[in-house]
Amino acid sequence: MTAREKLFAYSNIYDQKGSEELFLEAMRESVEHHRAHCKFYDKLLKQRGYSIDSLKSIEDCGKIPTISAQFFKYHEVLSIEKEKVKIHATSSGTQGQKSQIFLDRDTLKLGTKMIIKAMRYHGLISIIPTNYIILGYEPRTGNDMGNVKVALGMTRFAPAKERVYALRAIGDKYEIDYFGIMDALERFNRQKLPVRILGFPSYLYMLLQMMKESGMKPLRLNKRSLILTGGGWKKFDEMMVDKEELYSMVEELLGIPAKNCRDFYSAVEHSVAYPECANHHMHIPIWSRVVIRDVKSLQPLGFDEPGFLSFISPLVSSVPISSILMGDMAVLRDGKECGCGIDTPYFEILGRAGAVKLRSCAVAASEYMKGDQNG
Amino acid sequence: MDNIFRGEPISKEAFIDKLDEMKSRIEADLLQKPLAPELVIDAVHTLANEINQKEIAEQLAAMGIPKWTSEEYVRVTVESLNREALLRKVRAELGDNPFAWKKVDDGIEEREYPLGVIVHIGAGNTLGLSAFSVIEGLLTGNINILKLPENEGGISSKLLLRLVEIEPRLKPYIYVLDVSSKNIEVISRLIEAANSVVVWGSDEAIGAIRRLAPPSLPIIEWGHRLSFAYFAKKENDKEDLQGLAKDICMTDQLYCSSPQCVFYETDNSMELDAFAARLAKHIEAAIEIYPSAARPLNVQAQITWTHELIKAEEILGEKRLISDGQRRYGVMVDYKAELKASPLFCNIWIMPVKREELLGLLRAHKGYLQTAGLSCNRRDFEQLSDILYAAGINRVTTCGNMSVNYPGEPHDGTYALGRYVRRVNKRHIQIGKTPD
Description:
Oligomer: heterodimer
CATH topology of the largest domain in chain A: Rossmann fold
Radius of gyration of chain A: 21 Å
Distance between the termini of chain B: 68 Å
Shape of chain B: globular
CATH architecture of the largest domain in chain B: 3-Layer(aba) Sandwich
Low-confidence stretches of chain A: 364-375
CATH class of the largest domain in chain B: Alpha Beta
Helix content of chain A: 25-40%
Helix content of chain B: 40-55%
Distance between the termini of chain A: 39 Å
Strand content of chain A: 15-25%
Number of helices of chain A: 10
CATH topology of the largest domain in chain B: Aldehyde Dehydrogenase, Chain A, domain 1
CATH superfamily of the largest domain in chain B: Aldehyde Dehydrogenase, Chain A, domain 1
Shape of chain A: globular
Largest sheet of chain A: 7 strands, mixed
Strand order of the largest sheet of chain B: 12-13-14-11-10-15-16
CATH architecture of the largest domain in chain A: 3-Layer(aba) Sandwich
Number of helices of chain B: 16
Mean pLDDT of chain A: 88
Number of strands of chain B: 17
Low-confidence stretches of chain B: none
Number of strands of chain A: 15
Structural class of chain A: alpha/beta
Number of domains of chain B: 2
């Protein structure tokens, strides 16, 4: 059994201290695996003069050469043979180049274990029949967006009585079917079974707004109902509200307690999922370390200092993302302040790198010529 | 208070309440004798001479624009508003004796006439630009309704209020409303009153107005533009490289006319690398004279983000980055040519190009082209600038002068004032009638 496999079999998913040696060994395996199987990665390590011999402590993880997530939008760089790719998932970006990831059987196996453990830890697995509202795309052939697969997978944690989709395929386009969802919600309200609402927070917000504006009577859904959101606000950034406001709308209009609202951070290029704790913080599990990097030097920063979000994890063996630099700006907080019982650090997303509003006319012109590069 | 109703300061709410009154006021004012350009020129000249250049330059600097750029911008703007410059502008753009009847044939006469009411949709990226747009509307005798851009900081309203203080006869011609672009209801009401809408800014802003405006309403669009430098082989291009480095560093590449890319005429990547290294040396020197303004976190992040992608692609042999340890500048070599924006602040793309491919390369972005800084031998200048004009470029300059303007210079290939007037005519002798 490799250290990586042992790490993903480790029982307490937030015991970073106890699993530290395992994590370090798994990281050495990961870097060595990519070096040996990916020419690009080998060259990168040589160019940066990096060797795994220098990977001795957790702090050393920040020194593993990091690759920016956008690189993988434009380049298909693999650490496995192409035939071994089981899943090619793309981001939900509607404009510009989409993010993508190639996953092999090994990664999928460990990833599945990881998500089941995380769901179990947070008490999100249930055997009571549940009605689902999926605020995302209806699955159909030819759609390889990661979140479609994720959403479908997320309906397996409680037996599905019915699944209703918000974005329905009409010809070759998708349309948001708010009235269909509102009807379904009323029906589910009468059925009294738990309801799980999954999908983008932006669509959840728009749905709640719609319910409010149409004068729909607030629902009292089963108290075991859950809201599981993920994927961020994307092109709806402008209408973004903070979590407190969103969750209080959920309590008011759906009758689901705020502690049952859990947002997940996940990125196509990283694949580790970060569910919120009951206090709505995304703590870092044993499978990864988060480094916030200085926007100029890329050097790791301490708690509460804003910079680039960067993930270090041995999860993915198919693409050389042992260390990846995300396009998000974030801060890391000391987990001991949270009070939920998990004491690992947690991170907060501040926004996208370079989301500067039209500083120059030339930049604006270029953005419109090409579509949003970060989309 | 940033809002102005028929020359008087007013609150936003009160303005919106008076939209019906605006309609009847405008209808009465349209029957008045059109404004004479001289009246406007005198008032603007007085205003320009009392502008506190230092104060405005400081406001610009506070917005993150380098000090010398701000000072230069304010100096040039004020200069373009003095009597001589404005007279030259009016004469160049509207001809001699504008608004006077001119004989075309026996019994036939023509003259310029204001469009009537112009709604100006301001853009936020240039301070005071909105006031300038209104001044152009005044010079052509129009009634102007300005929708202020967001984050404008009140400077346009301040200037326009001072202008009507100097010349109260301008009052009926000025309305300013600080309303959000999202308030479609109010903007639609403003547009209803317009003979034409002038839109400054992004494709998004222009697209929104196009959707809002009825087909009968002409839209005058001043959109965002991209500029670049073009280097053909030349015996000695040191001076041009020096000039280009100045164009890059002095403006932090914030203007439409600032270079985003340099196309170097070669098909040899070693030659391109050598050229990039020479430019980097000149930028390093220029940066000492014109250091970049302090960069906000987001701006620096965007630069680093671009650099990191290039560094990874360098391994694949696709691109190359020349920079210093502090990322004060970036010479970013892309072996595949494409017109695109740089992350600004002394970051410039260098790409190889063959002359025969230039037209196609640029034409792909034809609606966005503005200035080309050209470096070549004298005998090539004519041929190259012809290709550039054919591709859609409007300004060809030497390197070092890309963002230098002259009074009365056409804006994006046209004279603005000519677009703010129409030509009316009359035939006052009966012809073809047999005499008794």
